[in-house]
Every structure is written in structure tokens, then in C-alpha cells.
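Subject: Interface between my chains keeps coming out wrong

I've been trying for a while to get a sensible model of this assembly. When I model each chain on its own everything looks fine, but I need the whole thing in one frame so I can look at the contacts. Pasting all components below, labels as-is. Any help appreciated, I'm running out of ideas.
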Amino acid sequence: MAALLFGLAAAALLAHHTVSVAALAVLLLVVCLRAPVSRRWPYLVGAVGSAAALFVLTPFVERLPGTVFWSGPTIPVVGTLDVTSTELSGALFNACRLAAVSLAFSAYALWLDHDRLVQAAGFARRSVLAVALATRLVPALERDAAGLVEALRGRGVEPEGLRGRARLLSPLLAGSLERSLNLAEAMEARGFGRPGATRLPQPRWGLREPLALAGAALAVVVGALWL
Amino acid sequence: MAVGRAENLSFAYPGSTALALRDVSAGLAPGQVTLVLGRSGSGKSTLLRAFAGLVPHFHGGRFSGRVEVAGLDTRRHGPARLAGIVATLFQDPEDQVVFTRVLNEVAFGLENLGTPPQKIEARATDALASVGAEHLAGRLVTELSGGELQRVCLAATLALEPQLLLLDEPMSQLDPEAAEALVELALRLARDRGTAVLLSEQRPALPLEVCDRVLFLEDGRLMFDGPVRRAGTWLEQHHPLFLSAGGWAGVHRPNLGEATCRLDEVSFAYEDNLLVLDNASIELRRGEIVALIGPNGSGKTTLAKLAAGLLEPLSGRVERSGRATYLSQDPGRYVLRERADEEVAIGVGGDLAAASRTLAAVGLAGDEDRHPRDLSSGERERLALAAVLAPEPDLLVLDEPTRGVDPERKHELAALLRANTARATLVVTHDRVFAKTVADRVVSLAPDRELVHA
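Reply #2:
Try treating it as a single job with all components included. I did that and got this:
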């Protein structure tokens, strides 16, 4: 399943047509929307929000010819701000690409059994474990943020507006650093990093696994050649 | 021969001039349960970390003296090498979980030690069974209650079959029954397998009944090291509150006023639609302190949040008059500002003078300009308490306010709460001694979610 999602993300990066990339993004969005609302929203906000931001900002930083839709002031160093048809279509293409890759990661985070992925890693197991732990960062941050808001409300204070919520960012990051240090300490105390580690035997591959691998390879080839 | 031995051990954390441990010498014999006591910040956790090799290898700092575990000098052999000989259960189970499934979590240490693959699952399952958690093997760790997670983490340490087991306040999130089971398990390990157990605890009544030996630390110095029968006499002379079975802290004549909060046949369910509370009713009157007790997962925190207005009931009615404040179980949630006084002032519209007064009331006078993250765990607890006391609420709801708090500080906290007769206070706690010390009335949430008033 991880390979299939990787294949779809790679296809989105290799494809040449906006419609193809958008179709992949929609497919991955549908997969993410099947997850419970309480779990999926931070991922969807992150994926769709970053893609939207990219779409809005790209025309202002790119300078491509085409039909000019809007012409703005001239800014030192940057030059004249304008929005052209080529810039808009390029922005849409890149935004769809970013959305597809982010949604593939979201689907991985929401649906996959990360333990199985770590256990199945034939090599670079430490790196795979690091990725699995990093994937847990989003729900952990979400829980921490909810805890901070609850503690504020417990004092009769409602965090209001963007500024009120933005003030939670710094303590959230500091908290996640503290948590990661505690986890690193606990892992070391349990022998992590010692040579000669073994692993819990994993169930044998069924029909789904080779099919998913073949699907991933097919997605990459189709993405590179025909999409 | 001792499994673990510290000789003239002194240690200071990086960037700190104060010594966390000062010239400590102690041995840990096989088959013996040793209880280490002391006030918050006295060096108990540091001593446990020294026996695990985490001090100095993980933390750095200045280290002098010598610590040996099973004949290995911890300065030359780091924690990963000592793993398996030593196993540590840390204070906060949420911060030590690596995997998402229980069985994989318990298997993690065995994998690191190079256990033959065909034996890993059986040993992990046996360890889960030994803590009564074999039914959790296939569950996600995120679905477990705090008490269940604590048992899974304990199983992960037991699976390693260590010669030395270090338990750092393992009962802090457990109800009395689960705590009793844990202490019995530690005793069984010591007697049957010859494991040396070093246990640090802030609810000492139960472990004092079964341990063989007691260490008492004060400002990093070992003030007492002896058999438990002598420890009773010593504690009675020097720190009697560590032996206290609970008694009222100071005069408190509840002059019951009007109800500040009334829950009438309230039911509540989270997203999974399972009822956490079913037709619960309780009234909190101005002037009284009510302790809410009950087993892990019985819905105490949910009831407390409903009372404080942080949750809305599924059915039934909640009436509240005046302002309510709620103290979360996790003091790490009170670190939003750069200074302690600014943190406390959040609830009083930025009034720094009021914040300073409240900080002084909880014993943090002079700490106004310190960053909340620089405070010790005990000091953070007090900062959090100050943050909810500062608004002078009509209803004060405290959720497990004594987690990690030493018996002497608990007594001071009880006296502070009892000094106020103008508000209603609801205290959620597993700590029966504290409940007896602080409360005018105890309400128990039974496993069947029924409220029993006593």
C-alpha cells in the first residue's frame, strides 16, 4: 500500500498535464476523506492549504509572458507585479502537484499500519522508523494543541482569531522537542542502536502486496509516459 | 553481591551549578525491593537514571564517583549496552511509546537485544500476561487509557527479564487497585526471579508495606539507607507526612452557601458513542471541597470537565453560577508565556500584581521572571495551580493535582485549598490519602458509572 501511494505521488510529479495531476489529487483526496473527520482534518487543511497558498503566490514571483490579467505596482528588486495566463496555468499545475504529493502522504499517515512498514523494511530500518515516528508528529501536535486550548479555556480564556492561535505555535514546537527528547531517552534505555538487532517475524505476503507493488510501478511508468 | 552499586556518586546536569546528586553511595541486592523516597527535585529520578547509564551518557553533565551494574562500569558502558540487564519504566508512559500496536511496542526492546525472532512474540505475550494485559496485544496504543498504557510500558520492561528493574513513580496514573497489583508484581519479580527492584514513589503508603529497604534523598544527599523496619522510625522523626494515612490539613469549617454547580442526570459519550457517564448527578456548594475518586476509565475527568464547562452533556442539565476554572492533569500545558507571572496573569487579564500574589501563595515567590519550562516538575505543578487560582473562581476543578507531588507538598496544597471557604472545589484524585486530607466529602464513580456519595 505504501508503495502504491509512493507510485501515485511519483506519477503526479512525472505527469505533464494539469488535468492528469488534478485527477490524481482528487483520487487521493477521496481516499483521505474516507478517514474519520477528527483524524483527517489537520492533514487536509495542511495539504489543501499549502496547495492553495502555492497557487496564489506563484504568479507574483514568476515572470512569464502571456495575456496579462492584472498589472500591479513596481517593487524594487522584484520588479513589476503582474498576473499572466501562463503564470496562472503554471501555478495551477504546481498546486495540483503539491496537493497530490501532500495527499499521498496524508493517506499514508491516515491509513497505513506504520508498525508493519517498519517491520517489513529490509534495509535502513532506522530511517524507516524515523519516518514512522515523524508521521506521528501531526496527530501528536494536534493533541497537544487541543490540550493547550483546553488549559486556556479552563482559565476562562478563549483563544480568538489567527493571532490568538498563532501564539500557541511556539509552545507547541517546544513541547514536541521536549517529547522527542524523552522518547529518545526511552529508546536508548531499551537498547535502540545496539548492534545485532532482530525483528518480530512478519506475516507472509498475500496477493495484495505484489499487486500493490505492480500497481506502483505501473503508476510511475504511466505517469512518466502518458499522463 | 549487589546487582547495582553507586559509590560516592555526584552529578550536576549541564548548565546547572547545583548538584542533583551529592556523594551518594548505595547498593541494590538481588531479590530486594528498594523504595527511594524524597521531596520533588531531591534527585530520585536522577539516581534511577544513573543506574540505567542515562546519566551521564544521555544527559551529559558533571559526573563523579562510580556506578556499577552487574559488574559493568556505567561510565564505560552506555544505556544501550546496559539494556536488558537494566530496564526502566519512566514517569510518563506517553513519552516512551515507539510503535502504534501494543505487541510491537512490547517486542521493541527484545528486537534491540537480538532475541531470536521465533521467541520474540512468546516473550512479549508472556510479559503482557504478567501484567494482566494480554487482551491488549492487538490494540492501538492510542486507544488505551493512561492506566492501560502504563501496564503496557511495564510489560515492555518486564519482557527484557532484567536483573535490575527501575520504576520511576509508576503508580502516578494508576487507581489504588492497579497500583496494588503493580506493587505485588514488583514483589513477585523480586522473590521469584531474584530481580533487584528500585522503585521511586510519591504515594509511599503501599510500597512501604512490602519493600525491603528504603532510601531517602534530600537535595541530592542520601539521608537514610536502611531496612524498612527502621525506616518507619526515621520517617516519623524527620518526615512524618511520608507515613501519614491522611488527616485534615488545617481548620476548615464548611459554611455551605448556594450551589455553584449542579449536574442533573448528566450523560456523556465521546465520538465512539460509548457512554462515559450515564445519568450522573452531583451538586457542589460554595464552601465545600469534594473529592471525586474511582478506577481508571470510570469517567472522572469527563465529569470534571462537564462541571467546569469544557464539555457539553449529551443529555441532562448542567447549571453553573459564577466563574469556573479547571486544572488539567498535565502541567506542561501551562507554558504559553516566557515568564511565570505572565503565564499566571493570562487568566486575570494580564494583572501581574495579582499573578505575583498567587505565585507567592503556592510557594513560587521570587520565581516570577523564570521561564515556565525552566521550572522543575514540582514547580510546574504549582505554576499550573497558580494559573487556575489567580482568577479567584467560584468553582475550582482540579484534575489529579497531586501527580508527582511529594507528601509534604501535598499537605501544603491541602492546607492552601482548605484555607478558602468562599468557593466550591472539586478534586479528582487517585490519591486516597490526599482525598482524606483535603475533602469534606468524597464521591466515588463506580466502574458501572454510578456516583456513590459518602
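Reply #3:
Confirming on my end. The mean pLDDT of chain A is 83.
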